[in-house]
Amino acid sequence: MPQKPKVLWIGCSDSRVPASVVTASMPGTIFAHTNIANQFHIFDDNAHSVLGYAVKEVGVEHVVLVGHSVCGGAKAAIAAAAHPDLPSPDPLTRWLTPLTQLVRTLDLSELSESEAVDKVVEANIVKQVDNICKSEPIVTAWANPGAKKVSVHGWVYDLATGRIRELFSRHPPACVCS
């Protein structure tokens, strides 16, 4: 029996945020890809392979990039941004480098730690959705009038309330990613 989920979930590897539990979904309804801090790097062949397969072979209609509150990856990027002189010898620090660079562009100075993490989580979702919109599978799907239309969504999951909040969605053909 082939799988036919309508959703690709790109989320964090955090054990508190499993896609099927968060969405109360049955097995086979969500195609999922997770990593630390729900990244979609432009150089990550693994993520691009998952997205390409999901769009071209599985036929998903929605790509959902999901961040979450109290994100350890966001906290680590904030800490790394505060110490730009330290080397990045370990894989986690290297993985978080694009997020750390994003943190350096944000004004977090007047925010509490939890507010700063929330701001980084939301800015990261915007950035990763933008990366997804610029990826070959999405660009190709949106350019092909005969292809199944795929929407890309940015969500935040709140660990305290168990609720998902949609930040925004991008839908073809009006989607113009900067």
What tags apply to this protein structure?
single chain, 178 residues, alpha/beta, Beta-carbonic Anhydrase, Chain A, five-stranded mixed sheet, 7 helices, 5 strands, globular
Quick rundown:
39% of the residues lie in helices and 20% in strands. By secondary structure, the chain is of the alpha/beta class.
Word description of this protein:
- With about 180 residues, the protein is of the alpha/beta class.
- The protein has one domain (about 5-170): 3-Layer(aba) Sandwich (Beta-carbonic Anhydrase, Chain A).
- Helices cover about 40% and strands about 20% of the residues.
- It has seven helices and five strands, in the order βαβαβαααααββ.
- A five-stranded mixed β-sheet has the order 2-1-3-4-5.
- Helix 2 (about 45-60) packs parallel to helix 7 and helix 3 packs across helix 5.
- The longest helix has 21 residues, at about 115-135.
- The mean pLDDT is about 90.
Which series of helices and strands comes N to C?
A: EHEHEHHHHHEE
Number of helices: 7
Strand content: 15-25%
Return the structural class.
alpha/beta
Mean pLDDT: 92
Largest sheet: 5 strands, mixed
Low-confidence stretches: none
CATH fold group: Beta-carbonic Anhydrase, Chain A
Instruction: Please report the first level of CATH classification, the CATH class.
Output: Alpha Beta
Alpha carbon gap, first and last residue: 39 Å
Gyration radius from CA atoms, angstroms: 16 Å
| CATH homologous superfamily designation | Carbonic anhydrase
Question: What is the overall shape?
Answer: globular
SS elements, strand count? 5
Question: How are strands sequenced across the largest beta sheet?
Answer: 2-1-3-4-5
Say what oligomer this is: single chain
CATH architecture: 3-Layer(aba) Sandwich
Total domain modules: 1
